[in-house]
């Protein structure tokens, strides 16, 4: 450990050290809490930023884990303080938990800024929590280490493993088609989530925690440990110990999160067949750090990175299997040649050093380079007259026969319209139709709800149809699948071309050539544009009004425009 700070240099010392009236006041209130002066004066004060709440099952174990982190902090000579942060619970927050990622980021940044904190352990994992915590920590730029909440154990029903989200969509589709009984449905409901931890498919949670590790923001191997495994407790303690050293070393997010680290994250995202949501989050994280990650960079990297993680929804297994197969370190070891191994990580070592000794134990779960799940391209970025600023598709989760497809549009003006008409017998739709959902983007949703996997109309389900081309400015759950074109930018709510699509218009999707076109004559589109008016928003006050006014488009990460990168704020008090 290279010590760069003396006790008097600690940020917290400017609160607790001075023999002033304010210093007196700050110390006296810690004494009120029962601490001794020597416990906190001149010691690294570590915030354990806890996103636990009683209505967040993914983080149900984080109060216990906070105790393990505290043990580690104390053993290393620091002073731990657990603080709560906004708990984003994916399952319950409507219309979209994505609305609150930026709120968590602000909560994290402002808590770290306003309190006498020298370093932080960020605890979370449910989808938006990882980017929210990291965005705040990047903007504040105090030493920080991310502690992934860990995936839950694999689900179980009738002896079959069940995967979060993925198997819900699958069995719900079968139930709508009349293939699953009430009794069976109840059994699935009881068996699909049976331990603390986040969704154990390669959804957004598993993707983002893996990317946090790939970028060097967790201890090596941390992201793959199941929440219920006792190794997770030890990892929490180790994170507590390490953050104290990081404070003395003055190792900050800006030192770890270089452009090369972000490139590593994109590479790993492709190799794990990660969630499409990761693109938005990585763009937002990078912009907090002062880097632009243009969408074509994702496509460029996607084209030469093989998909190796055989995990649902793209593959067969679950995150518990991934851990037993060697975890993320083993996967990264397989793609060493595609990574920047000299990137520094929070444990003070380089990524390359952290991969030493890693190996794939079960090659059916983590595929070897010579037998990938897909040669390349888990995700594709599309451009064209329907998406001038880009759109995203998880090609690995789409049926091959739709990779090049032209069909007539069946348009839904918003989600209510979709709910009202999708199963109507009168709906003029067949398996070649292209389902289009408007007004589900960053401002239109608002918050880009995960409505992008539009349901297949019931009458087609009953005829055996299980996939169709679907297009929207919404997002899709990382656990979902199908030929779903997402994040169409600019969104329809601000008058993007998606707003101009009408029933029967021909739409051409061409994944190999990365094209998405609305085959309507420009003169007709001009006429429609002149007639178009923005839908009336009912969110006239509060956070939703602020969100609508200041959120950026999907290709810019959906952050607030006023939270752009600024000079190092950690030196400010
Ligand atoms: Fe929390 Fe899926 S609901 S990760």
What would your notes on this structure say?
The chain is of the alpha/beta class. The chain folds into 3 domains: about 45-155 and about 195-355, Response regulator (Rossmann fold); about 155-190, no CATH class; about 380-550, IlvD/EDD C-terminal domain-like (Glucose Oxidase, domain 1). About 35% of the residues lie in helices and about 10% in strands. The chain contains 21 helices and 14 strands. An 8-stranded mixed sheet has the order 7-8-12-11-10-9-13-14. Strands 2-1-3-4 form a 4-stranded parallel sheet, with helices on both faces. A two-stranded antiparallel sheet has the order 5-6. α12 runs antiparallel to α13. The two termini are about 25 Å apart. About 55% of the residues are buried. The model is unreliable at about 570-573 (pLDDT under 50). Bound molecules: FE2/S2 (inorganic) cluster.
Describe the structure using short key phrases.
573 residues, alpha/beta, Rossmann fold, Glucose Oxidase, domain 1, 3 domains, 21 helices, globular, disordered C terminus, binds FE2/S2 (inorganic) cluster
- Beta-strand percentage range: 5-15%
Structural class: alpha/beta
The CATH architecture category of the largest domain equals: 3-Layer(aba) Sandwich
| Envelope shape | globular
- Got a strand count? 14
Number of helices: 21
Tally of separate domains: 3
**Biggest sheet, spatial arrangement of strands:** 7-8-12-11-10-9-13-14
Q: What is the mean predicted local confidence, pLDDT?
A: 95
What fold name goes in the CATH topology slot of the largest domain?
A: Rossmann fold
Terminal Cα span: 26 Å
- The amount of helix comes to 25-40%
CATH class division of the largest domain: Alpha Beta
User: What is bound: which ligands?
Assistant: FE2/S2 (inorganic) cluster
Main beta sheet: 8 strands, mixed
Based on CA atoms alone, the radius of gyration comes out at: 24 Å
* Poorly predicted runs of 5 or more residues: 569-573
CATH superfamily of the largest domain: Response regulator
């Amino acid at each position: 450990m290279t010590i760069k700070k003396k006790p008097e240099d600690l940020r917290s010392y400017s609160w607790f050290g001075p023999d002033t009236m304010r210093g007196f006041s700050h110390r006296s209130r810690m004494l009120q809490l029962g601490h001794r002066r020597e416990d906190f004066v001149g010691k690294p004060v570590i915030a354990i930023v806890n996103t636990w709440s009683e209505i967040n099952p993914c983080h149900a174990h984080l109060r216990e884990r906070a105790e393990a982190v505290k043990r580690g902090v104390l053993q290393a000579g620091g002073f731990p303080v657990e603080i709560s942060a906004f708990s984003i619970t994916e399952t319950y927050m409507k219309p979209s938990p994505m609305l609150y990622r930026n709120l968590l980021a602000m909560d994290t940044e402002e808590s770290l800024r306003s309190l006498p904190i020298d370093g932080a352990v960020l605890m979370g994992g449910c989808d938006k929590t990882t980017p929210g915590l990291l965005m705040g920590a990047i903007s504040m730029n105090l030493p920080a280490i991310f502690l992934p909440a860990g995936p839950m154990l694999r689900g179980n029903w009738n002896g079959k493993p069940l995967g979060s989200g993925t198997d819900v969509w699958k069995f719900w589709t079968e139930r709508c088609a009349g293939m699953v009984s009430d009794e069976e449905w109840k059994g699935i409901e009881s068996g699909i989530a049976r331990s603390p931890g986040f969704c154990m498919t390669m959804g957004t949670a598993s993707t983002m925690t893996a990317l946090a590790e790939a970028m060097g923001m967790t201890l090596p191997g941390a992201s793959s440990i199941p929440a219920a495994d006792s190794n997770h407790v030890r990892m929490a303690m180790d994170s507590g110990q390490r953050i104290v050293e990081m404070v003395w070393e003055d190792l900050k997010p800006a030192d770890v999160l270089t452009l090369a680290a972000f490139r590593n994250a994109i590479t790993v995202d492709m190799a794990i067949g990660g969630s499409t949501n990761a693109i938005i989050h990585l763009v937002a994280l990078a912009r907090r750090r002062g880097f632009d990650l243009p969408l074509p960079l994702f496509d460029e990297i996607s084209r030469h990175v093989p998909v190796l993680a055989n995990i649902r929804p793209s593959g067969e297994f679950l995150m518990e299997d991934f851990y037993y197969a060697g975890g993320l370190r083993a996967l990264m070891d397989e793609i060493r040649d595609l990574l920047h191994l000299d990137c520094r990580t929070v444990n003070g070592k380089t990524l390359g050093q952290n991969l030493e000794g890693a190996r794939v134990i079960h090659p059916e779960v983590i595929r070897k380079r010579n037998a990938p799940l897909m040669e390349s391209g888990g995700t594709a970025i599309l451009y064209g007259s329907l998406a001038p600023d880009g759109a995203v598709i998880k090609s690995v989760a789409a049926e091959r026969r739709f990779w090049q497809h032209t069909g007539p549009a069946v348009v839904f003006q918003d989600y209510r319209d979709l709910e009202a008409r999708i199963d109507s017998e009168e709906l003029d739709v067949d398996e070649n139709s292209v389902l289009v959902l408007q007004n589900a983007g960053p401002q239109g949703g608002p918050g880009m709800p995960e409505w992008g996997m539009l349901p297949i109309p019931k009458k087609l389900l009953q005829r055996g149809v299980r996939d169709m081309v679907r297009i929207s400015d919404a997002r899709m759950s990382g656990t979902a699948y199908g030929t779903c074109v997402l994040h169409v930018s600019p969104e329809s709510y601000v008058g993007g071309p998606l707003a101009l699509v009408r029933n029967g218009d021909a739409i051409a999707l061409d994944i190999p050539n990365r094209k998405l076109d609305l085959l309507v004559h420009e003169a007709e589109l001009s006429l429609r544009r002149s007639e178009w008016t923005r839908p009336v928003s009912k969110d006239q006050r509060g956070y939703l009004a602020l969100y609508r006014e200041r959120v950026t488009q999907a290709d810019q990460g959906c952050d607030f425009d006023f939270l752009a990168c600024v000079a190092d704020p950690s030196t400010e008090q």
